[in-house]
Design brief:
By secondary structure, this protein is mainly alpha-helical. Among the domains are: 3-96, no CATH class; 482-551, no CATH class. It is built from 29 helices and four strands. The model is unreliable at 1-97 (pLDDT under 50). It binds one DNA strand of 10 nucleotides through residues 208-209, 212, 243-244, 247-248, 250-251, 273-278, 280-281, 307-313, 315-316, 342-348, 351, 355, 377, 379-380, 382-383, 386, 390, 414, 417-418, 421, 449, 452, 488, 491, 495, 519.
DNA sequence: GTAGGGTTAG
C-alpha cells in the first residue's frame, strides 16, 4: 500500500506508468522544475496512494498551495522541453531513486523544518532513519553552510553514528561554517575538541579559518589574539601564520593593525614578499596611495625585489585614482625591470578603464593583447563582458560570451554569472533563465552570485512562482539559502509592492535562527506603516523580540 | 585566502 501510481510526471509520457513510493513522489514534486504539466488529483499524504494524471489543457499546478498568490500560472514553457529531453534519455524511476540522492533529499527535507535547538535537530535526524556517510555530511555542510544549526546538527548526528571521528578537513569545514555564522563560542569549543582528539588535528588551515572568520566579523583584536596564542593549539607561530593574520587584517579594512603586527614581529619573524604584498594591497584598498608606494620602498630596503604582484597592486591603486598616465608609466617600468605585466595586470587595467567610461581605451588593451597572442583566460573575458554590458553594449557582450568556446576558453561559473547579471540588468528574463538552464546542461555549478541577480529580477517583475522555483533550485545545487538571500528577498519584495511576501520571508529567516539586519526590519515596518497594515506591523515588531536560541 | 567578479535605490 505504500506504493502509488503516477502518470505523466514532469513530462513523462502518459502511457508510461511508473510506480513511486510516497517519499519518491514527494521528493520528485519537491525537486521538479516549474510548470510541470501535471495535475495532482489527490494531495499527497503519508501512506496515501497518489494518483497523478496529465492535465488535458494548460499546465496546472495544484500542489501544496496554501496561498494562491504563490503559484502564478506558468508562462515559461521552455522548461518543459527539458523534460521532454530527459524523457528521451530514459529518465525514470531508477534515476530518481538513487540512494544517496534520496538520502540527501530526505535529510534536506528534515533540515528545512524550523528548530528550536541543536538537540532537536539531532533528534529529528535520528528519527529520519537515514544512515549517514562522510560524503552525505560533506554535501550537507555545503548545502547548509549559512545555517549553523542544521550544519552542526548534521555533524553531531553523523559522528555519533559513524563510530569514528571525522577527518581534520571535515572539522575545518565545520569551523568555517560556525565562524561564518558568528557562533564563535561554539567555534572555539570545536577547536578545543579538536585539540583533545589528538595531535595534528588542528592545523594551520584550521587556525587560518579561525583568524579570517574573526577578522571578517570585525573582531580584529580577537583574531590577533588567536595568532599570539596559536602555539597553544599545536600550530607553529611562523611566517606562514603571520602572513595569514596580516593578510586578513589588511583585507578586512584594518591595514593599520596589520602594519602594527608586521612591525611588532619583523625581528622575530623576518617578512617576505608575501608579507609586503598583503600590506600594499591593504593600503591600496584603504585608498592610501602614498603608503602603497612607501611599503614598496620598504620592501626594497629589506632586500626584497618587488615582483609582478607588487607592481600589479601598485597599478591597481593608481587605477582607483584613475591616474592612467601613471599606470602606463608603471607598465613600461615593469618591462624595463624584466618583470613584465601578466594577464591579471592587464585585466585590472582594462576593467578600470571600462568602469571609468573609457571603453575605447579599454578595448585597445584587448586588441593589443589579442595582437600579441596573449593567452586570455576566463576572468579576462568576464571583465570584458562586464564592461561591454556596462557601456550599454549588451549585444557585443553576448558575442564575446558566445565566442569563448570557439577560442578554446571554457565558460565557468564566473563567466555565466557575469552574463546572467548583464542580461538581468536589461530585464531579459527568458535569456537569463535560459543561461541558468545552459549551466545545468553544461555541468557548470551555480553559486550565490548566479542566483542573486535572478532573484532580484524576479522581485522586480513580481514573479513569485519563478522565485520559489529558484530557491528550490539553489538548495538542490548546494547553494545555501542564508541571511544574504533573505535580505535580498525582503528588500526586493518590499520595494516592489509584495509586502506580505516580504513579511513571510522575514519571519522565515527568524524562525531559521538567523538574526536579520536592522535595515530589513526597518524597511518592512516603514512600508507596512505606509500601507496602513497595522496588524502585520505588530507581528513584525513582535518578531524582533524573539531571541535566537544559541544552542 | 598574495594580485582580477559590482552590492542598496533614486
Amino acid at each position: 500500500m505504500n506504493r502509488c501510481f503516477a502518470r505523466s510526471i514532469a513530462g513523462f509520457n502518459v502511457n508510461k506508468v511508473c510506480k513511486l513510493s510516497c517519499i519518491s513522489f514527494c521528493t520528485l514534486i519537491e525537486s521538479s522544475k516549474i510548470d510541470d504539466p501535471i495535475e495532482v488529483i489527490k494531495p499527497p499524504k503519508d501512506d496515501d496512494p497518489i494518483v497523478v494524471a496529465e492535465s488535458p489543457e494548460i499546465p496546472i499546478w495544484v500542489k501544496i498551495s496554501e496561498n494562491e498568490d504563490d503559484f502564478v500560472l506558468p508562462s515559461l514553457s521552455y522548461w518543459i522541453d527539458n523534460y521532454k529531453r530527459n524523457e528521451a534519455k530514459g529518465y525514470d524511476e531508477t534515476t530518481i531513486s538513487n540512494k544517496s540522492d534520496i538520502d540527501a533529499k530526505k535529510i534536506t527535507k528534515v533540515l528545512r523544518e524550523r528548530f528550536e535547538s541543536l538537540d532537536s535537530v539531532v533528534q529529528a535526524l535520528n528519527d529520519s532513519r537515514v544512515t549517514p556517510s562522510e560524503s552525505l555530511v560533506a554535501q550537507m555542510l555545503k548545502r547548509f553552510d549559512n545555517n549553523w544549526k542544521s550544519a552542526y546538527g548534521v555533524f553531531i548526528w553523523a559522528e555519533s553514528h559513524m563510530g569514528a571521528k571525522f577527518s581534520p578537513a571535515m572539522y575545518d569545514v565545520l569551523i568555517d561554517c560556525l565562524g561564518k555564522s558568528k557562533k564563535f563560542d561554539l567555534m572555539w569549543e570545536v577547536v578545543k575538541q579538536m585539540v583533545d582528539i589528538g595531535e595534528n588535528y588542528v592545523t594551520i588551515n584550521t587556525m587560518a579559518k579561525v583568524i579570517r572568520r574573526l577578522g571578517k566579523a570585525g573582531m580584529h583584536e580577537d583574531s590577533i589574539d588567536a595568532f599570539r596564542r596559536i602555539e597553544e593549539f599545536g600550530v607553529k607561530r611562523d611566517l606562514l601564520t603571520l602572513n595569514v593574520v596580516i593578510d586578513s587584517l589588511a583585507k578586512e579594512k584594518n591595514v593599520e593593525r596589520a602594519n602594527d603586527i608586521y612591525l611588532e614581529f619583523k625581528d622575530e619573524i623576518p617578512p617576505n614578499s608575501h608579507t609586503f604584498n598583503s600590506l600594499m594591497h591593504g593600503w591600496s584598498k584603504a585608498r592610501q596611495l602614498g603608503k602603497v608606494q612607501t611599503t614598496m620602498d620598504e620592501m626594497r630596503e629589506h632586500g626584497i625585489c618587488p615582483d609582478v604582484i607588487s607592481y600589479t597592486t601598485l597599478i591597481e591603486a593608481y587605477c582607483c585614482e584613475k591616474d592612467f598616465r601613471k599606470v602606463d608609466l608603471l607598465l613600461e617600468e615593469m618591462q624595463e625591470k624584466g618583470c613584465p605585466p601578466n594577464i591579471i595586470t592587464y585585466t585590472i587595467v582594462m576593467h578600470a578603464l571600462g568602469k571609468s567610461k573609457e571603453i575605447d581605451k579599454a578595448l585597445k588593451v584587448y586588441d593589443k593583447m589579442k595582437a600579441r597572442g596573449c593567452v586570455l583566460d576566463t576572468s579576462f573575458y568576464s571583465s570584458l563582458i562586464y564592461i561591454l554590458s556596462k557601456a550599454g553594449r549588451l549585444k557585443d557582450a553576448r558575442e564575446v560570451f558566445d565566442e569563448m568556446p570557439e577560442r578554446g576558453i571554457k565558460r565557468d561559473t564566473q563567466t555565466y554569472n557575469t552574463m546572467i547579471t548583464s542580461v538581468c540588468k536589461h530585464t531579459q528574463e527568458e535569456e537569463a533563465l535560459k543561461l541558468l538552464r545552459e549551466m545545468e546542461t553544461k555541468g557548470v555549478n551555480p553559486d550565490f552570485d548566479t542566483y542573486a541577480p535572478l532573484l532580484k529580477m524576479c522581485c522586480k517583475l513580481k514573479r513569485m512562482k519563478v522565485l520559489s522555483f529558484l530557491l528550490t533550485h539553489m538548495s538542490d545545487n548546494n547553494v545555501s539559502v542564508g541571511l544574504g538571500t533573505y535580505s535580498l528577498l525582503v528588500r526586493g519584495l518590499c520595494m516592489n509592492g509584495k509586502l506580505k511576501h516580504a513579511c513571510s520571508f522575514l519571519e522565515d529567516a527568524v524562525m531559521k535562527g538567523f538574526i536579520p539586519y536592522d535595515t530589513m526590519f526597518k524597511m518592512v515596518e516603514t512600508e507596512l506603516e505606509k500601507e496602513g497594515m497595522s496588524e502585520e506591523k505588530k507581528r513584525i515588531q513582535e518578531l524582533k523580540l524573539i531571541q535566537p536560541n544559541t544552542c
